TrEMBL record:
Domain Peptidase M20 dimerisation: 210-336
UniProt KW keywords: Hydrolase, Metal-binding, Plasmid
Membrane-spanning segments: none
Name of the protein this chain belongs to: Acetylornithine deacetylase or succinyl-diaminopimelate desuccinylase
Organism: Halalkalicoccus jeotgali (strain DSM 18796 / CECT 7217 / JCM 14584 / KCTC 4019 / B3)
SUPFAM superfamilies, per database record: Bacterial exopeptidase dimerisation domain (SSF55031), Zn-dependent exopeptidases (SSF53187)
Annotated GO MF terms: hydrolase activity; metal ion binding
Pfam families assigned to the protein according to its UniProt record, in alphabetical order: M20_dimer, Peptidase_M20
Length: 445
């Protein structure tokens, strides 16, 4: 185990500030900040807190947008000038998935008026990821309030653009701003909700589209399109072709392919239960999600077209081209046995919106080991190393900026992230704050 200098006074200070920490998160949530509308929360809430309530040596606004309305907030607490300390970067995004009026009907709570009930704080962004951001901000504040002099730099980026894959405006720009100052960053902790597990790998994802051309006909004629008739009466594709029914067959085939993938791909960290002890996410690393479906134009006409748009999640050790080729093969095999599709083949495309790479950091990376030590010392439990089943800014910080990035944060994606009644356990929020503070002391000294 690494040496660890735990400061009980910092933990006591964090406990004393519980009401203030929760109040901070509640205020944070009241700012409605969907992607591309982050300016208000960043300028009116995060930046003033960094400036007035914290003791950063420098605070920079990094905004590479044309309209200068996508500000990232960077803070730097400089370490000693002897150069012996290690630099630690924390990263988290302020943008959230919006809640439409229709979606709000599925909420039992008000998404913008956070409340605490049975130990959970409810509100949009509580889990993904204003809650985790709150923990890292207050961990840094705790270290500052203790007047602890660090040997290495402590860096923090509160960024924009994550939810719509706009990292060029967010995490890439914010991280590059530090790197352009000549700062070497050996590890970044992105505080996405992980149930306080250390996520050393993530999924990757790509989007896809499948389109079927059919042939419209009055719905009263459907029997002629499907069943034999007396000789001389038009049948089948001479009458009409139901594109929606063909698409239904494709959906069943894709479901079976997804099942095969889940049996095929296994890994010690990602999708098999965590290491060294079981994780809390469940297994199954692959999903073929057909999320948007449309067919037909008129209720009294058999659909003359059908289209699905979807989203594939897959493990970091799998070639996405191989997966896409198999999806195409499934559709082409079906088409080979359908007289209509032989002449009107399905149209398929991928990577038009999402092409999100994975991240991957070895479990024995010094940053992983230090964070594991902080968890063990703070929570008196063994750290769990597992994989993030979704995607995160880590991938771009690692691939585009060259900074190894892992995730550990309070909450869990299953706690309403992108859905109704999003929430975070307040106990985890406080525990994460203590672990982050411990990590700062462990790593930067």
């Amino acid at each position: 185990m690494l040496a660890f200098n735990m400061d009980p006074e910092i933990n006591a200070w964090i406990d004393d500030q519980e009401d203030a920490i929760i109040d901070f998160l509640r205020q944070y949530i009241t700012y409605r900040s969907p992607t591309e509308q982050e300016q208000e929360v960043q300028r009116e809430f995060v930046e003033p807190f960094f400036t007035d309530q914290m003791e950063w040596d420098s605070i920079d606004i990094v905004d590479v947008s044309e309209e200068q309305d996508r500000p990232n907030i960077n803070g730097r607490l400089s370490g000693k000038s002897d150069g012996e300390g290690r630099t630690l970067l924390f990263n988290g995004h302020s943008d959230i998935v919006d809640v439409s009026e229709e979606a709000a009907e599925n909420w039992a709570k008000d998404p913008w008026d956070p409340i605490i009930e049975d130990g959970y704080l409810y509100g949009r962004g509580a889990n993904d990821m204003k809650g985790p951001n709150t923990a890292m901000i207050w961990a840094a504040k705790a270290v500052m309030e203790a007047d602890t002099e660090l040997s290495g730099d402590l860096l923090m980026s509160i960024v924009v653009g994550e939810e719509l894959n706009q990292q060029e405006y967010g995490s890439i720009a914010a991280t590059d701003a530090f790197l352009e100052e000549g700062i070497e960053i050996p590890i970044c902790i992105n505080t996405e909700p992980t149930n306080l597990e250390i996520h050393t790998k993530s999924a990757a994802t790509f989007d896809f589209t499948i389109e079927i051309q059919g042939k419209e006909v009055h719905t009263s004629q459907k029997n002629l399109t499907r069943y034999p008739q007396r000789y001389g009466i038009p049948v089948g594709q001479d009458v009409g072709v139901d594109a929606a029914m063909i698409m239904a067959d494709i959906l069943y085939e894709l479901r079976d392919l997804e099942h095969q993938w889940n049996l095929r791909y296994r890994d010690q960290i990602y999708g098999s239960g965590g290491y060294q002890t079981p994780d809390t996410q469940g297994v199954g690393p692959i999903g073929i999600n057909c999320t948007i479906m449309e067919a037909g134009d008129y209720i009294a006409a058999i659909p003359g077209h059908a289209k699905i748009e979807g989203h594939v999640f897959y493990p970091p050790f799998v070639d996405d081209r191989e997966l896409w080729d198999e999806m195409q093969e499934v559709v082409e095999t079906l088409a080979a046995t359908n007289d209509w599709l032989k002449e009107h083949p399905p149209r398929m495309s991928w990577k038009s919106v999402f092409d999100w790479p994975p991240y991957e950091v070895p479990v024995d990376h010094p940053g992983c080991k230090a964070l594991g030590t902080a968890i063990e010392a703070t929570l008196d439990e063994q750290p769990v190393y597992s994989g993030f089943k979704a995607v995160a800014d880590n991938s771009y910080i690692q691939h585009e900026c060259g900074v190894d990035t892992i995730s550990m944060g309070p909450g869990d994606i299953s706690m309403g992230a992108h859905g109704p009644d999003e929430h975070i356990p307040t106990e985890q929020l406080m525990n994460a704050t203590k672990v982050y503070a411990a990590m700062i002391l462990e790593w930067c000294n």
